[in-house]
Amino acid sequence: MASVGKILRRTFLIGSTAIVGGVAFGAYMVSRPAANPLQPGDGEAALNPFVFIDQEGVTLIAPRAEMGQGVHTTWAALIAEELDVALEDVRVLHGPPAKAYYNTAMIGEVLPNKGYDISDFQHNLGELLGVVGKVVNLQVTGGSTSMRDGFVRMREAGASARETLKEAAAQQLGVPRDQLRTDAGKVIAPDGTELSYSALAPAAAGIDPIEARLRDPAQWRYLGQTVPRIDIVAKSTGTAEFGVDVRLPGMKFASVRINPRLGGVMNGFDDSAARNMPGVEQIVDLGNGVAVVATNSWLAAQAANAIEIDWGAAPYPPETDGLFAEIAKAFDTRANSTMRDDGDVSTIPSSATRIEAEYKLPYLAHATMEPMNATALYTGTALEIWCGNQSPTFQQSTCASIAGLETEDVMVHTTLMGGGFGRRSELDFAGYATQVAMAMQGTPVQVAWTREEDMTHDFYRPGAMARFTGAVDGGQAVMLDGQIASQSCAQQAMGRLTGMQMGGPDKVLVEGAFNQPYAIPNYRIRGHIAELDVPVGFWRAVGNSHNGFFFDTFMDEMAYAAGADPLEFRLALMRSEHAPSAGCLEAVREMSGWTGQTPDGVGRGVGFTYSFGTPVAQVIEVVDEDGTIRVNKAWIACDMGIALDPGNVRAQMFGGMIYGLSAACYEEITFADGAVEQLNFPDYEAMRMHTAPEVEVRILETNTHMGGAGEPGTPPAAPALGNALFDLTGIRARELPFSKTFDLLI
Amino acid sequence: MATSLRINGTAHNVELPEDVPLLWVLRDEIGLTGTKFGCGVAACGACTVHIDGEAVRSCQVALGDVWGDVTTIEGVGTPDAMATIQRAWVEEQVAQCGYCQSGQIMQAAALLAENPDPTDADINDAMQGNLCRCGTYPRIRAAVKSAARMMKEA
């Protein structure tokens, strides 16, 4: 029993630590407060790494990157809620790369639990593991973690700052702190005397931060409400500054051409034609490619196109078929993981019906609207980088290493991002900008990629295959046994970001399949890693993006084999396993008026994936219009426990679904002669105004742990659509995109 | 040789080869970065501006071919003095990442100038060249309708 006592004690201690997280990090060695990266000058006070007050007013630091998901607005609302400042009166900045801004929620995700069934102990253990994020400097925006990471820490930051300001006022006025109140950026005394936070800032800077209890959610003014986005006016007037909009005095513009056989070398190049082209100032050998520096981005790109380059071979099979042959071979290798093995998949009742299916999903590009870019200024002893990015600490250390500088000699300015979707967690664009800047010492250079360079030099969502076997008996699933094979984007990307090799079972490769909330008595999921050197990375929803399709499509196939209504079939297995998930299915059943029957020319499908702590159910309706199929309507229900900004959650759910539908309908990255064949949007279509469905979103708040919002809308979209297409046509497409099988409106 | 341009009511003389697309004149020469680069092949609409009121893809119009007065998002309104259509964009909270929205607004403004009361089908036809990877389409549609209503009431 001693071990139980020990666990309870640890649970308690971990909980205590979490309460002090944010401003002071508690008792553990790794949870000592990280150095405050904000260096206040005279008359300024940086009360903690997230609140900065000077004579201009209050600035909140939101070190999670704004790529459209609204994190700045909601992160600021978390602080403002406790600090008593009006959201419209504060400035919000990305903040510098710093240990204090590590992501506590992301590392907790590596625990091998299913997520939906975790106990409070496991939840707290996840929070403890979060401090490991500080050790590896994990200041990353991703994994739909921002709100889970910031929910307690940022309110504590706001509350602590408020109480510290009140203490400063108390000392100045000779009034006890508990008789003071705060409102709209001021401390107010019982006699009506008002002191602005700015006026109190210098005194507050000398007071140790004071801990404060968090307010009861019933008192919230911002949280739980839809608040106007703080970036909305700038983004409606063309004044929001993205990475590619950075303009510095004397700045030059560069275009890069990197080996399209990804990871291959450059044997040589002939730039004689390019050197005399208009505007060209310098041509830089990057080792695996070249950059042209010019007076104008377009002139730089034209000259780069005029360079004849002898490219080396790709370090992987040069054709798509060869890549998928390697992925298929991985099924025969020892499983990298068996993250779920309930019951015994080898014994099924003799009366059961067995079904089998094999699925194949393509490599995918991120295709952010703003192509990759970074701006850099190298002085010989220091480097400044301006770019939209999801991982500033890694940008900083990587660029420092390229430039041969100490990390502290590199400043990273994180700008707004024209989309991220995981692509901007990578470091390549800032690395190339560093190389070009080093060749242009003293001159700032913006290195902006063409769309073609962006599309053909991504870190792709890996191509993936799955083999599923199942059995149904008496209208219910009695067995599901799935194998998934793909490259490991987690191992590859973590190696690039941290320089550490990640071994062991890869949870990401099987997420969205092993952890689905179904009480199937015999349920096994195994992952197999295909060893290939195609650059792969985090694509919105990551492993869930393919496994959501594999798993949920197979659930639909089993329902059909069982002669059951596909929605009821899922619900029957889910109710006892995870009530919030079942609630989402029940919600879309009601919202869509689901009857299981559709008139001729109309098809409906249901899709469900639990990912990033959030169950999401979708019903999608397709219509046949003279032989062309259009996605007509969609109903979405989600449950992330607490929806801090319902308007933003609705936008994320719909946007996540559209991102998934774009890929499901049209998108595929293929290889020929080692190079990606898709160059631009005409080869890589997406949902548009006329092809996007009407949608209704319902947010439920019954989940006991907080889930993410930015990614969970993506995984169920492809299976819901595929299931609808099956309902319409009787054809089961087991490969994507659907445009290969169906005549979709484009 | 300098080329004369009128942009947002201001005359500019530009010293660039005449085949440089208007987009790159605006962004890199004039410093009007509200107009965005997305594809360079007229497939995404992010670079949409007006020439004599007509919505055009500025990545496809060579400097030497600019046939009239150019209006960019900066010429439509400013944060302190937004145009009706921009107020509609704020009211409907359209933007997510926001990168495509300058182009969306310029395209919608041209639609409304021509058709003050567009139907859903009209909006589909006019806006389908403007890509949004965040999926803000329902709110773009709402904002176009909201702007139409506000313009009528004005």
Oligomeric state of shown chains: heterodimer
Question: How many beta-strand runs of chain B?
Answer: 5
Supply the CATH superfamily name of the largest domain in chain B. Answer: Beta-grasp domain
CATH class of the largest domain in chain A: Alpha Beta
| CATH topology term of the largest domain in chain B | Ubiquitin-like (UB roll)
Indicate the overall shape of chain B.
globular
Order of helices and strands of chain B: EEHEEEHHHHH
- Choose one word for the global shape of chain A: globular
The domain count of chain A comes to: 3
**Cα end-to-end separation of chain B:** 45 Å
What does the radius of gyration of chain B come to?
A: 15 Å
Tell me the Rg of chain A in angstroms: 27 Å
Distance between the terminal alpha carbons of chain A, to the nearest Å? 64 Å
Average residue pLDDT of chain A: 88
The major beta sheet of chain B can be summarized as:
3 strands, antiparallel
Question: How large is the count of helical segments of chain A?
Answer: 21
CATH architecture descriptor text of the largest domain in chain B:
Roll
Say how many strands of chain A there are. Answer: 27
Fraction of residues in helix of chain A: 25-40%
Largest interface: A-B, 65 and 63 residues
CATH architecture of the largest domain in chain A: 2-Layer Sandwich
